[in-house]
Amino acid sequence: MELRELECFLVLAEELHFGRTGERLYVSQSRVSQLLRSLEGRIGGRLVDRTSRRVALTPLGERFLARLRPAHDALGAAVEDARGAARGVEGVLRIGFQGTADGQVTAAVHTFQDRHPGCTVDMSEIPLADPFGPVRRGGCDAAVVLLPVREPDLALGPVFSRYQQTLAVSVRHPFARQPSLSAEDLAALPLIAIAGTAPAYWREAQAPSRTPGGRPVPPGPSVTTLQEGLALAAADRGGMLLCRNTADYHGRHDLAFVPVTGLPESALGLVRRWATESARVRAFADVLAEVAGGE
């Protein structure tokens, strides 16, 4: 197999346009057609249907794409891993975080850069409503996200920052005067939920629809950012479950943060794609486990 033919097919499968594929590969449109015909000749069947109006993958093309993409990603990761091993941990490591990069994460970044001065760490906030998307799309190499994580294409670890959950409520709400709450008390207050593209199991964990005893929890408004949720909680539109570190960081005069018993602990974890994990990401994961005491 010619690698250039495979790369051409992968780009064409994304663009579904011969001209744009050629632009991305810095070749002519006729060269794209030539590479595709050569690949189809090797396989013995048509991968793409092309008319004057549209370009589409054939069923064989769809099947080939599903098998080729992870193999191509793994090949790229193997090359990157070998490069990293040859020159040490160098380059740029892009770390995403949801809401707040707590002291454990920033301490890990500081320690990592001390140990690997040839590698620069860039940090960026990722959408609360899309915890896994930036890693999958390549916007960051790894991300610190709220658990649970049950994504087969993502590696998880270390897991750290395990704390009792707290409920952010307006200081005007009766719950604000309680020293603590039971999970069953959530049935008396709308919970602010997280909208977006996150899996249903993840959104349910952040804003359960039922108490552990089976009582329904009233649905509150949905938000896409942490600041939206805190603002709605302060306006007494509902309560928002937060990890203890986030509650401490975002302390404000119009909110009370009340511990909640009977719920699973909140926890953070580092996620990255199995297929493209690099030496830089593995080195950072090791430092984060060391600094944060993760598992």
From TrEMBL:
The keyword DNA-binding applies. The keyword DNA-binding applies. Residues 1-58 form the HTH lysR-type domain. Keywords: DNA-binding, Transcription, Transcription regulation. Coiled coil: none annotated. PROSITE patterns: HTH_LYSR (PS50931). InterPro entries: LysR_HTH_N, LysR_subst-bd, WH-like_DNA-bd_sf, WH_DNA-bd_sf. Belongs to the LysR transcriptional regulatory family. This is LysR family transcriptional regulator.
